[in-house]
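User: I'm curious whether this sequence folds into something compact or stays loose and floppy. Could you predict its structure so I can see for myself?
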Amino acid sequence: MAYMKPDPNLDLNTTEGRREQLRQLLGSRAQKNSDPRGDIEVLQPQFIEYTDDDELVVEIPVRPWQVNGIDQVQGGVLAYMIDCVFGPLSFVTSGYNPVGTMDMTTNYLRPIVLTDNDRITIRARIVTNSRRVMYAEAKLYNSAGKLAVTASTNIIKIGV
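Assistant: Here's the prediction. I'll summarize afterward.
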């Protein structure tokens, strides 16, 4: 996501407010003729939904630069995708506090193979949200809807 100021008119205490802020953050891009920032923007995510039970759903296209020598998306790229979804979700959930990943456990269940028009889906949610630390979980699905990766993370609120 290109840096953008949070919308002060959105109430982050409501699902609707968080949904709209996440839609804006995930849809933001660098200005024309500017390089994308080295974060979620290079992945070209598409906001799908922020559900009433606080689950963020994002689709990300699979690109040739993400695969290894056997046309499977490299595991580090899959972890990067998930971490880049945890970022905006935790930023909005924390009320626009800067956040940082403390650790992340990633479990690879099946490969993501590069094919034409392939997209992965990530479903992420904040499980606990204490004063200083959030715990989140995510599931990454291949284009056939099969679970391919699970991850969990602890996220620290910086400056709180």
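Summary: Residues 26 and 96 are 15 Å apart (CA to CA). The radius of gyration is 15 Å.
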